[in-house]
Design goal:
2 copies of one chain form a homodimer.
Chain A lengths: L7 H14 L6 H12 L6 H11 L5 H13 L3 E5 L5 E5 L6 E5 L5 E4 L2 H13 L3 E12 L1 H8 L1
Parallel strand pairs in A: 3-5
Antiparallel strand pairs in A: 1-2, 3-4
The structure holds a DNA duplex (25 and 25 nucleotides).
Amino acid sequence: MQNRLETLESILERLRVSIKKNGLKNSKQREEIISVLYKNRTHLSPEEIANEIKVKDKNTSISSIYRILNFLEKEKFITTLETDKSGKRYEIAAKEHHDHIICLECGDIQEFVDTAIEEQQIKIATNSGCKLISHDMRLFVVCAKCQERNRV
Amino acid sequence: MQNRLETLESILERLRVSIKKNGLKNSKQREEIISVLYKNRTHLSPEEIANEIKVKDKNTSISSIYRILNFLEKEKFITTLETDKSGKRYEIAAKEHHDHIICLECGDIQEFVDTAIEEQQIKIATNSGCKLISHDMRLFVVCAKCQERNRV
DNA sequence: GTATCTGCAAATGCTTTGCACACCC
DNA sequence: GGGTGTGCAAAGCATTTGCAGATAC
């Protein structure tokens, strides 16, 4: 996991600005979700996020979680990752851009950045006359631990 | 689109072997789906495939299409691609491995291979002690045509 | 006070499954 | 003839939406 580039308080500050900009009102839940994702060092599913929030607020509904996650993604406070067919997972965006290594056996996720590949991607897009907006790269592997386990 | 590496007849031959190996029986539909994907030069959704097949066979059901697509993917006759939230698209696997450039505006899909990136991916996985099984890279762009259209 | 936010339940959309009949070997 | 394939309708599952009450400004 990469270092976080920003304090939680600083993110929440940006969130409040973004809320004003969009003519919306403050809500505890939006900040809660940001906090949960900031404090957690893993990629969480909407349901996992809901469960964490329900510890404090029993009544929280999964539909609000989805609504807020969509807003936070649109505003680039969080990013999504699909590790398998079970749905999306979310992580805080306040980290350097990175791609993912996903273990097909245990589901473990590692992160990495490779500037050589990043540069090459821009070249590839440009050579086709395209403007690169974003990319997405997932390496599906068997991780060291799972290889070890299989060997036994 | 890359060159196809194999004739349709040769693929169907392999399909028949695979069917025997799995203790299954021949069916016109499996061959039909392979043919549709072979002849089509685009990535098709299950529904689009169903529509093409319904031209010949009105009664074809979407559930059979899904069942067969899952089988064909498991047996590596076809591969999947998710271009957006609308679901999976399928293409024939009888092409060289490649990755995809997806236009965010018109949905157009281009294919490419970059050996430098492929090699780098193996290095990245190996450096983390992982065994690379497969990967997946999507470049999301605005294609030349859409840039042109936006300029007007 | 008015507009947004929330929880709940219902709806949606893609995909899978159960079942009865059709078909292949 | 016994097992597999198919169409149909129903079920599943993640996600979205409509609505009425709650809350923020």
